[in-house]
Amino acid sequence: MLKPAMVIAAILLGATLPAIPAPRYLQRTDTQRSLNLVGEIMDRRCAIDGAHDKMMRQNGTKNAKDCTLQCAKAGGSFVVVAPETKTVYQLDDQQKPAGFAGQRVRVSGTYDEPSKRYSGPP
Q: At a CB cut-off of 8 Å and minimum separation 6, what does 31 contact?
């Protein structure tokens, strides 16, 4: 399993930052690649549904942050959803994303193709 460290930088909607280069010390195999993503921190279930609406009605939450945290608390996992491609990336670190639940973020790390897992630099 990859090391669970992940760098997350929250950005406001509409704000842009330059690309975050991958550190040189990152060890990669043929199945791993550096990846910089801008997307939303969601729970896996809402990400698969493509929105929080259904779960917000079911659990009585009023916004994306509360919905994501409630679903994670109920056993869901945190993911990053890239809006352009609608791709869901499972995060190795399941603690740091809680502080950014429901927010648009920029993450930089390593994506492991066989496990479909995304992790930050060690």
A: 112, 113, 114
Q: How distant is the alpha carbon of residue 14 from its chain centre?
A: 18
| pLDDT at site 117 | 63
DSSP annotation of 15 reads -
Note the pLDDT of residue 118.
Answer: 54
Among residues 38, 42, 32, 25, the alpha carbon closest in space to that of 108 is found at 38
Q: Could you tell me which residues come within 8 angstroms of residue 34 by beta carbon, excluding any fewer than 6 positions away?
A: 22, 26, 28, 108, 109, 110, 111
Domain boundaries, the chain: 29-119
Token pair listed for 72: 């994670």
Asked if pLDDT for residue 120 goes beyond 90, the answer is no
Alpha carbons 106 and 82: distance in angstroms, whole number: 10
65/43 Cα distance (integer angstroms): 10
**Residue the block writes with tokens 């493509």:** 50
Helix (H) or strand (E) holding 70, with range, is helix 64-73
